[in-house]
């Protein structure tokens, strides 16, 4: 690897776990691209991080919009010419306390669009930057709700299916990619963000700390696996 700073990109970096991932990557010496679907909240988040002299820049990317993803990949190639770490963090949780068959189908479609297809299109658009240098670390922020065993219990069906598919994508991509490129899924635990609510026991900072070891694993490190707190968990 060259001595140039490594470049990392986080989707949904303007708040919650994504914001902490950006902050900690920058504190650990990465040049970090904070992506946000909303320009204003993205700029505000980067401004706040820059006050601590962190090497962070903002890019607008809506993971529901393939053209927005494609344009971001072109810009990253032009500006940095590389991508070392990609974190698919952007996510929605739209069906708490609802049964799958009673849902408006648009809720399932919207959840799949962001949590599954979003990550799929982001990986598809950015993988060539990693293949170019034969190196990359991809982390998919999943959930314990995405484990197959969770499908035996009713409720939260749209979210569960989206994370189950994301876990499957993790394994399929791991089986396809060549070179020193690793992809893993991780459950951050129950986290006190807008999504997790105020009663959650874990802070976004703790969640980010439990995820980021996967950004710096060596060539012998895992790929196509699902982790929580550094331990492999059942799919
Ligand atoms: N919190 C938990 O307890 C928990 C547990 C397990 C897994 N997770 C997972 O952890 C990840 C982060 O969750 P969080 O708790 O930090 O949630 P959060 O506070 O609700 O933040 C979600 C982030 O995703 C972004 N986002 C949503 N749709 C997007 C889109 N179409 N394009 C780009 N960005 C989009 C949001 O942007 P806007 O600000 O523009 O809406 C926001 O930045 C998610 O994948 C979630 O499923 C969370």
Automatic annotation (TrEMBL):
SUPFAM superfamilies for the chain: NAD(P)-binding Rossmann-fold domains
GO terms assigned for molecular function: oxidoreductase activity, acting on the CH-OH group of donors, NAD or NADP as acceptor
Gene3D superfamilies, per the entry: NAD(P)-binding Rossmann-like Domain
Pfam families: adh_short (PF00106)
Keywords annotated in UniProt: NADP, Oxidoreductase
Family note: Belongs to the short-chain dehydrogenases/reductases (SDR) family.
Name this protein carries in UniProt: SDR family oxidoreductase
